[in-house]
UniProtKB/TrEMBL annotation:
The modification N6-(pyridoxal phosphate)lysine is found at residue 66. It comes from Arachis hypogaea. Residues 58-257 form the Alanine racemase N-terminal domain. Its cofactor is pyridoxal 5'-phosphate. This is Pyridoxal phosphate homeostasis protein. Transmembrane segments: none annotated. Pyridoxal 5'-phosphate (PLP)-binding protein, which may be involved in intracellular homeostatic regulation of pyridoxal 5'-phosphate (PLP), the active form of vitamin B6. NCBIfam families: YggS family pyridoxal phosphate-dependent enzyme (TIGR00044).
Length: 264
């Protein structure tokens, strides 16, 4: 029998050496629905990358596990995936200690000032913050990283193309601020969140791509070093075709979310 090895060790970008057909010496036990869905997602990611002439290893898949139990995250971890995302501070702080430390967590979206210490102190393996939408957030993160003695934290500036974030006309100034005034943060790129129905259009993605061009010119930064985080379950293939390097996929992998116990 032949199966795909879908490991993304240490949240590395897709690697051809980890995506290949393996001959199995013994039958494999039935896999959970999330793992099977994830395998399908990875195949679609590769196909979208091929259509756009992009190397599959240049695309990171963040499995967004908000409202999902630790047991379901563990299924994907045991299948080899290492990159997971959350939207609520209390949820990620509760989950992270119950899971292996080599998971690379992404926090996605708005962060209240009074939750900065809770997030950074409670999740030592937070790899990236996707959602710097003003200087205050950047400054608060920068100070707390220093106070806690953490390694510099990678951050993405959130641009308002459809929903929330900084106005596109101001993204250069905010990126400059992070780069020049926040020594404990690493400006790593731009991100956007889709409309309330979690879909975006080519125009939204084009806006973010244009912002990257402007930011990279202002910072004298190669575009390939500036990530674009755009695309979710409903539109990640289009996003990849339009230049996304980081897609955030939740319900397509984990199924519909349960908001009955919504956390902040």
């Amino acid at each position: 029998m032949h199966f795909l090895d879908i490991r993304c060790v240490s949240c590395s970008l897709l690697n051809h050496s980890h995506i290949h057909l393996l001959k199995m010496a013994a039958p494999v036990v039935a896999e959970g629905a999330a793992v099977l869905a994830f395998r399908s997602v990875m195949q679609r990611v590769r196909q979208a990358a091929d259509r756009s002439g992009t190397l599959p290893e240049s695309i990171r898949v963040v499995a967004v596990s908000k409202t999902k139990p630790v047991s379901m995250i563990r299924q994907l971890y045991d299948a080899g995936h290492r990159c997971f995302g959350e939207n609520y501070v209390q949820e990620i702080v509760d989950k992270a200690p119950q899971l292996p430390q080599d998971i690379e967590w992404h926090f996605i979206g708005h962060l209240q000032s009074n939750k900065v210490k809770t997030l950074l102190g409670g999740v030592p393996n937070l790899a990236m913050f996707e959602g710097v939408d003003n200087q205050k957030v950047a400054n608060n993160l920068d100070r707390m990283v220093s106070t806690l003695g953490r390694n510099p934290l990678k951050v993405l500036v959130q641009v308002n193309t459809t929903k929330s974030g900084i106005d596109p006309s101001n993204c250069v100034d905010l990126a400059k601020h992070v780069k020049s005034s926040c020594p404990n943060l690493v400006f790593s790129g731009l991100m956007t969140i889709g409309r309330p129905d979690y879909t975006s259009t080519p125009e939204n993605f084009k806006t973010l791509s244009n912002c990257r061009t402007e930011v990279c010119k202002a910072l004298e930064m190669p575009e390939e070093q500036c990530e674009l985080s755009m695309g979710m379950s409903s539109d990640f293939e289009l996003a990849i075709e339009m230049g996304s390097t980081n897609v955030r996929i939740g319900s397509t992998i984990f199924g519909p979310r349960d908001y009955s116990k919504k956390q902040e």
